[in-house]
Amino acid sequence: MKRQRNVKIVATLGPASDTYEMIRALHEAGVDVFRLNMSHGTQDEIRQKHEIIRQVEQDLDSPIAILADLQGPKLRVGKFAGGAHDLDVGASFRMDLDTADGDATRVCLPHPEIFAALRPGVSLLVNDGKIRLKVEKCGPDFAECTVIAGGTISNHKGVNVPDVELPLAALSDKDRSDLEFACALGVDWLALSFVQRVQDVAEARDLVKGRAAIMCKIEKPKAVERFDDILAVSDGIMVARGDLGVELPVQAVPPIQKRLVRRCRAAAKPVIVATQMLESMIESPMPTRAEVSDVATAIYEGSDAVMLSAESAAGRFPVQAVQTMDRVAIEVEADPTYAQIIAASRNVKGTSVADGIVAAAREIAETTDIKAICCFTQSGTTALLTARERPGVPIIAMTSQRGTARRLALSWGCTCVMTVELQRFKGAVVNAARAARAGGFATETDQIVITAGVPFNVPGTTNILRVAPCDERLIYRTDPE
């Protein structure tokens, strides 16, 4: 399905978007990737959504990526007598392992691993940071705190510990079960929550066994500190601004977002900017001006994708939210300033033959009358390298691998087309010309750039660049067997 933009749209499915009609409407409105949130719903409900997406994909003959987002460890306080209590600034408050109902002076925190990592002076954040506690004294089963920012604390509110690295694996028992379920189902991307270290990614990769690409959610300060190492072992990145904004000063999040997006692009790995992008559209058919500006900023920065969460999962206007993102993206990418920013931020220091081929393809396409770059790819690497260049013409990713086509639905500018396995370069040229014409990217009088590798069907062999006409008669007349 040809889009009028390069940036991709990710939409979370939920109660507001769990029927065939709605999922199809969302895809037709602009959704390229559907996110299945493993924190909500049973595995049977997730399976039903997966089946519907694949049916829509088949009916529209349009590769769709499915992203399963693992919940990660959830750190929460226990219950309170009466359900809730108010904490005043300056008051003392204790967290411990006692399972008795809490009150205005204490509550159970059933996570001994947190107490093991605490030290005096560390902050504890409750309910998305609305309540802030400072640890004064702590031991293996308690923490005596002072209330720095007060408010109402109630049953099972989440706890964040931003100042220390917690001795917790990124995968809980539930996550391991969900990971195996999602991989067996056939999802394309698996998002890891609570990533703090490279070892968290390595554990997941051992369990995935190549059945899905791994996306790391950057939502912890330690992940920001170790980002380059985490990026090196990831297939993609999600900038999860919600938790980052809780555990770090909110003013630190925008520059972090900008840095991470640029590093992902330099590494040719897709990056999603997520959380609260069109939050007001949960209840309103119109976004705020600030939200539109936020979406536009992520696009100007060169993000591969922008994401809707509750807006599409539980909101009243899911299709309108997608249409808004689509219109914002089209408008931004038509702005001459966008092309200038993208070109100025191109900072590729590749040394491989493939790096040189894709850079040359982009240069040729932008300096001559070329309508598209058509790249043949088995693993998806050539398409990712081409997307890193952010060319000014469409990218048509040709592959015989259905999984590769689906994963590339997340990558900037890539329109994925299935093709048969090819043995000769002439066949590749003919198939590329047909795909360009069929997709409305070019006519018979136009030219396209084709990149491929010989021998065919071997990952990592990109070594040919060809400027070819879209008229098959000219191809057969000029191309040798």
From TrEMBL:
InterPro entries referenced in this protein's UniProt entry, alphabetically: Pyr_Knase, Pyrv/PenolPyrv_kinase-like_dom, Pyrv_kinase-like_dom_sf, Pyrv_Knase-like_insert_dom_sf, Pyrv_Knase_brl, Pyrv_Knase_C, Pyrv_Knase_C_sf, Pyrv_Knase_insert_dom_sf
Q: Which residues form the Pyruvate kinase barrel domain?
A: 5-322
Q: Which residues form the signal peptide?
A: none
The pathway is: Carbohydrate degradation; glycolysis; pyruvate from D-glyceraldehyde 3-phosphate: step 5/5
UniProt KW Phosphoprotein keyword: no
SUPFAM superfamilies given in the database record: Phosphoenolpyruvate/pyruvate domain (SSF51621), PK beta-barrel domain-like (SSF50800), PK C-terminal domain-like (SSF52935)
Annotated Gene3D superfamilies: Phosphoenolpyruvate-binding domains, PK beta-barrel domain-like, Pyruvate kinase, C-terminal domain
What keywords does the record list, in alphabetical order? ATP-binding, Glycolysis, Kinase, Magnesium, Metal-binding, Nucleotide-binding, Pyruvate, Transferase
Per the database record, which ranges form the Pyruvate kinase C-terminal domain? 356-467
Q: What is its EC number?
A: 2.7.1.40
UniProt lists the family membership as follows: Belongs to the pyruvate kinase family.
- UniProt-recorded name of the protein: Pyruvate kinase
Task: Name the species this protein comes from.
Answer: Sedimentitalea nanhaiensis
